[in-house]
Amino acid sequence: MKETDREAVATAVQRVAGMLQRPDQLDKVEQYRRREARKKASVEARLKAAIQSQLDGVRTGLSQLHSALNDVTDIQRSLADVSRDWRQSINTVESLRDVKDAVVRHSQLAAAVENLKNIFSVPEIVRETQDLIEQGALLQAHRKLMDLECSRDGLMYEQYRMDSGNTRDMTLIHGYFGSTQGLSDELAKQLWMVLQRSLVTVRRDPTLLVSVVRIIEREEKIDRRILDRKKQTSFVPPGRPKNWKEKMFAILDRTVTTRIEGTQADTRESDKMWLVRHLEIIRKYVLDDLIVAKNLVAQCFPPHYEIFRTLLSMYHQALSTRMQELASEDLEANEIVSLLTWVLNTYTSAEMMGNAELVPEVDVNTLKPLLSPDVVSELLDTYMSTLTSNIIAWLRKALETDKKDWLKETEPEADQDGYYQTTLPAIVFQMFEQNLQVAAQISEDLKTKVLVLCLQQMNSFLSRYKDETQSYKEEHLRDRQHPHCYVQYMIAIINNCQTFKESIVSLKRKYLKNDTEAGVSLSQPSMDGVLDAIAKEGCGSLLEEVFLDLEQHLSELMTRKWLLGSNAVDTICVTVEDYFNDFAKIKKPYKKSMTAEAQRRVVLEYLRAVMQKRISFRNAEERKEGAERMVREAAQLRHLFRKLASGFSEDADGYCDTIVAIAEVIKLTDPSLLYLEVSTLVSKYPDIRDDHIGALLAMRGDTSRDMKQTIIETLEQGPTQANPNYVPIFKEIVVPSLNVAKLLK
């Protein structure tokens, strides 16, 4: 207490100190005292109230304990009285055993009297019940059947109570009512027949279906009542429980399964489209059945049956089983596509489970897959494997067909722009399109896989295509008269390469969301390279045709005949222009490069003629005349290739200027300036070699061996700076030895 008092005093001191921190607060001391007095009075009042409440509670508790003690004493006294009375009544109970037996016999006799009329009328009721079943009056028939079963079960129960071990009397009763079980079975058959045809019955006579459901409900109640009594008496009448509700659902389930399995009307042997027809019939039947079940059948069953949800589950399970069976068969590629499209898309679409008439009872998002992911994956693997084989076979066949066209005596067809083409690109990409459209119906992932497959096979196909075009070229070179339309079909092959490139880009743009999807970008550069190589070889083979025809005229260049007035270059220009009139049917990208290559080749052959030492000018007059002729011919060639390159923005002067530069060296009249002119030539064409310079100086015919050696050695000492855009041309020209030059001369 002392410690508490000290703490209270300390707290009070702190509070007073807090109140009297300024002088002006002394005036309020009386006010503070009154406020603290009020607080103290309030606290004391609350404490008194709390203590009073506790005292009242204790007083009440003591009163209740006292009452409880009195009650326990009274109960003790009453139990003692009951115990005494029970001991005295034991003998009385034993003396009433005869009365108990009399009551049991009276109960049995009362049951017999009660069922006496039914017992004597059993044969008649059996006949009436049989007639009612045959007439289809199922409710009335069931009512009479219930009366028969009630009489039988009542008699058997009373016999069981009196003497459960007396099997003879039980057998006698069971035998007398033996027809009852047969009637029950016959009625059940009628019920099952109605249930099997429930979707038809509900449209024609829904009351019949309602009657069946009512009968089943009655039997369910009887089953429950008998099972409840079994817990007390262990007695179960024969044929119970019937479990007709459970059998009803089994019948419906079997009916649904039969309905699904019975839709296959054709086989692969009789109809290639058998699976498509089968799946379409299933779709139509299932949709119609579920709509009827939702709108009509559900109204004939009690709500707690949830009959529509049950039927939906049955149909889904039956469909899943059927799809598993179909998936396990040896399906062809198109059949796998049909099956997967139906399972993955059609089933949940508005054409079937997503139909507006089934909403909201059917939620497609809650439906389980008809096929497991493993089965779908296995089917897709089989499909991809089969598709790979098919694409390889189709591409091979398409190429064989195209090869036969190359040998035709008629020109290939031209497109709307007049460019030659064959049907190969159209056939190939039509096939790719068809397979991609089919794959897109199944899933985006499969579509991408099929696109990758198509591009991979396209890569392999282009390698074979390249080999076949090479063989075509070699076959022609063995006999240039055959095939008759070699040039035209080679042009078509070149154009096909451009068509292939455009089609590949179009295909990827159409069927890929982005260029990195599934790593498809891997195939484009390599295919472009192969196609460009095929086109380049094709253009080269066409140029070979040109230069085979130009060979004789090219051999006249830089000869005495040429110097005296040969029209070789005129003929060359006419021949090239004539060929390029046919080459106009080559598509622009390749025609552009081909024109540039033709110019390079013509100029190269012209320069090769210069370097082959076919002529050595005898005097300045001949050098002047030869140089001027070279300049004129360079202008002719420049005009020709400008004309051929019109529309390409191609510089047709570069190569022809080389001829003019060579002519300037030949035209020079002052030998002392020869070094300067040659050094200018070397600076413009850094790939020119010593033997080229030697051959050029030899062609002039006025330079001594020492002068040649001096010019060459001097040029070797001075480094040359090559133009980064310069395209070498002299490195391809081989200067023959002196003996070969004499032979050529």
Automatic annotation (TrEMBL):
The exocyst complex is composed of EXOC1, EXOC2, EXOC3, EXOC4, EXOC5, EXOC6, EXOC7 and EXOC8. Interacts with EXOC3L1. Interacts with BIRC6/bruce. Interacts with MYRIP. Interacts with SLC6A9. The keyword Metal-binding does not apply. InterPro entries: EXOC3/Sec6, EXOC3/Sec6_C. Belongs to the SEC6 family. GO terms for biological process: exocyst localization; exocytosis; protein transport. Gene3D superfamilies: 1.10.357.50, Exocyst complex component Sec6, C-terminal domain. GO terms for molecular function: SNARE binding. It comes from Suricata suricatta. It is found in: Cell projection, Growth cone; Cytoplasm, Perinuclear region; Golgi apparatus; Midbody. Its main location: other. It comes from the Eukaryota. Signal peptide: none annotated. Component of the exocyst complex involved in the docking of exocytic vesicles with fusion sites on the plasma membrane. This is Exocyst complex component 3. Pfam families: Sec6. The lineage of its organism: Eukaryota, Metazoa, Chordata, Craniata, Vertebrata. PANTHER family: EXOCYST COMPLEX COMPONENT 3 (PTHR21292:SF13), EXOCYST COMPLEX COMPONENT SEC6-RELATED (PTHR21292). One of its GO terms (cellular component) is exocyst. Keywords: Acetylation, Cell projection, Cytoplasm, Exocytosis, Golgi apparatus, Protein transport, Transport.
